[in-house]
Specification:
Elements: H1 6-19, H2 74-80, H3 134-159, H4 173-181, E1 188-190, H5 196-201, H6 206-214, H7 248-261, E2 270-275, H8 282-294, E3 298-304, E4 307-308, E5 311-312, E6 332-337, H9 341-358, E7 361-367, H10 386-395, H11 398-408, H12 414-437, H13 461-477, H14 482-488
This protein binds thiamine diphosphate and magnesium ion.
């Protein structure tokens, strides 16, 4: 059977209905009339204007209704907490009776995008610059400028076969660092996979980052068992990155709920990053539903970068972005210019305040653009023109915008810029060559920690058998088969640790 794209399959199925003698007309229009991603102005093409809100007249005085609460029910508790005021129906907030039939397709006519700096990095008219010291701003800038250098070195090294995989975050530096700067050190971070910068901002060293990407003996978080960029750093409150999309979201909802319940963690918060594509997963809804009902301080931070691999947002959703979904879950929500580091910082600080004070979730949608390819397994020139990418790097470059602000404040100069870039480059290259020379962990590490075994319990036979089999194969071929002879040398103890007889290992 040939593999068909979704649209072709739908067309084929619909035409079958047609040919089958059914009088039912096609329910979708032919492809040319479907909204297409405009290549030159893709992400700036406005989505269809939302249907205006019905002109419901709010009654000036809502007559006192007898609440429909069952005594002791959740609805009654909520009503007592002020979450519902005199609802006519349980599950609504402030509904009233109306004789006017009106459908609606938006909670606000348009969701505005909050910004502090304009494209030139100058304060936008009427904007309040968030409180920020020179040191804080420069700490943000240092990490923002580090990201593209780390990205370039590791991206190129994957191309040369020196690491197995990489994902860049260029274009999203302001969204990632602005949000990280808006959180406090004790807060928990659940990343999707493009948030290595947030970890660097917290103090994760370049050596540790490179160790994970090379999976060498100093990769303490994942011990060489994960693909590059799947960082795990409990000491920085950074939870393990896992590739299956949106799985971090229910985990974050659980962590936020745990904080709510844990006396010692009062005042702490969770930030959960996810992409515009991940928001189409069921886990997105499961997580937001759980968080809105159970509570717990959590910032749901959407990096809306225009793409989910090759799927542009216009093919991802038909509503008003991801922000429109927040009120559906009863979450305070803001849309922010994700390329404006100060706006992101300011929005996340306020989101954090609301989340902690209200013990609840807050949704932040940061509008940005994925400048790099999706990953080293992707070639974005196949689905978007190079000019579009170039335009974003020139016209709305998050690093340039923030630098212009620093210069405007009198906090930054050309010589300082040159010195920083050269220092960043040297440090990245040094950490890179160091990590490449270090050996990989003991081969037997691949069997450890993959199964939750309580202290004193036996490792399940499926693990010991596989370990023993590898040991047997290594004994037989490890010295005589050239690829293995060479490969063994890269590991601490050269695989000797798995060559014991029962597969139990150390
Ligand atoms: C459950 C699941 N489905 C599909 C994939 C393949 N996949 C990896 S990344 C990705 C796109 C995600 O896009 P988005 O959430 O917008 O994040 P971005 O890459 O743009 O940062 C897809 C479909 C996956 N990893 N997991
Ligand atoms: Mg995306």
């Amino acid at each position: 059977m040939s593999i068909l794209c979704r649209r072709c399959l739908a067309r084929q199925l619909l035409s079958r209905v047609h040919q089958g003698g059914s009088t039912r007309p096609l329910i979708t229009g032919p492809p040319p009339t479907l909204p297409r991603h405009q290549t030159s102005t893709s992400t700036s093409t406005p989505l269809p204007y939302p249907t205006p809100l019905p002109t419901f007249e709010t009654p000036s005085l809502i007559p006192e209704q007898k609440p429909l609460y069952v005594p002791g029910s959740q609805a009654e508790r909520h009503a007592r907490q002020g979450r519902m005021s005199s609802p006519l129906r349980r599950g609504t907030h402030e509904s009233w009776w109306t004789a006017e039939m009106g459908f609606f397709n938006a909670v606000a006519k348009t969701i505005p995008t909050y910004r502090v700096l304009d494209e030139e990095g100058q304060p936008a008219r009427g904007a309040t610059i968030p409180e920020i010291s020179r040191d804080e701003a420069l700490a943000m800038y240092r990490t923002m400028t580090l990201i593209p250098i780390v990205d370039n070195v590791l991206y190129q090294s994957q191309r040369q076969g020196r690491i197995s995989f990489y994902m860049q975050s260029s274009g999203e530096e302001a969204a990632i660092i602005g949000s990280a700067a808006g959180m406090l050190p004790n807060d928990e971070i659940f990343g999707q996979y493009r948030e290595g910068g947030a970890l660097l901002f917290r103090g994760f060293t370049l050596n540790a980052l490179m160790a994970q990407c090379f999976g060498n003996v100093q990769d303490h978080g994942t011990k060489g068992r994960m693909m590059p960029i799947h960082y795990s750093a409990p000491e920085f409150g950074f939870h393990s990155i896992t590739s299956p999309l949106a799985t971090q979201m229910p985990q974050a909802a659980g962590a936020a709920y745990a904080i709510k319940l844990e006396e010692e963690r009062q005042g702490d918060c969770v930030i959960c990053y996810f992409g515009d594509g991940a928001a189409s997963e069921g886990d997105f809804h499961a997580a937001l539903g759980m968080n809105s009902v159970l509570g717990g301080p959590c910032i749901w931070f959407c990096r809306n970068n225009g793409f989910a691999i090759s799927t542009p947002i216009i093919d991802q959703y038909a509503g008003d972005g991801i922000a429109s979904r927040g009120p559906g879950y009863g979450l305070d929500t803001i849309r922010v210019d994700g390329n404006d580091a100060l706006a992101v910082l300011s929005a996340v600080r306020e989101a954090r305040r609301r989340a902690v004070e209200g013990n609840k979730g807050v949704l932040v949608e940061a509008m940005t653009y994925r400048v790099g390819h999706h990953s080293t397994s992707d070639d974005s020139s196949k689905y978007r023109p190079a000019e579009e990418v170039k335009e974003w790097t020139v016209v709305d470059n998050p690093i340039h915008r923030f630098r212009a602000f620093l210069v405007f404040q009198g906090w930054w100069s050309e010589p300082e810029e040159k010195a920083l870039l050269s220092k960043n480059k040297n440090e990245v290259l040094k950490a890179f060559s160091r990590a490449e020379k270090l050996p990989k962990p003991k081969l037997g590490e691949m069997f450890n920690d993959v199964w939750g075994v309580a202290n004193g319990e036996e490792v399940p036979s499926v693990i010991t058998e596989q370990r023993a089999e590898l040991g047997r194969l290594l004994k037989k071929y490890g010295d005589v088969w050239e690829p293995w002879r060479k490969e063994r040398k890269r590991f601490v103890e050269e695989g000797e640790d798995v060559m014991d007889c029962d597969g139990r290992g150390s």
